[in-house]
Design a protein that fits this description.
The protein has 4 helices and no strands. By secondary structure, the protein is an all-alpha fold.
């Protein structure tokens, strides 16, 4: 089998790629109904940072305990971060609603 010269390939793959299931066609999106705007994760993070310094906190635990935390948070339809913050709120810490906002970036 000889060496392949990929420089000689002149096919435009964009037409082929547009038919693939991973390619999403551009759709006209109607503007959302007029309501109270919900803060986006990026905006929420920026507002929190301006209002009060936000720091990252790391916690080490056994692998099995981490799996249990993930399961409980999933069953509550929450992120693990929100689940832990809710538990701290129940213990008397002053956790605000904006602390519970999901700060993960949305997938496209």
């Amino acid at each position: 089998m000889g060496k392949k010269d990929l420089a000689s390939v002149t096919t435009d793959l964009s037409a082929l790629a547009s038919m693939m299931p991973t390619q999403r066609p551009a759709l006209a999106v109607a503007p959302p109904p007029a309501s109270t705007p919900r803060p986006t994760p990026v905006r929420a993070r920026e507002e929190l940072a301006r209002e009060q310094q936000v720091i990252q906190f790391s916690l080490s635990m056994r692998k099995e305990l981490r799996k249990q935390l993930a399961r409980l948070a999933s069953e509550a339809d929450m992120t693990m971060r929100a689940f832990v913050l809710n538990a701290l709120k129940e213990k008397g810490l002053s956790v605000r609603e904006d602390d519970l906002i999901d700060l993960r970036k949305e997938r496209r």
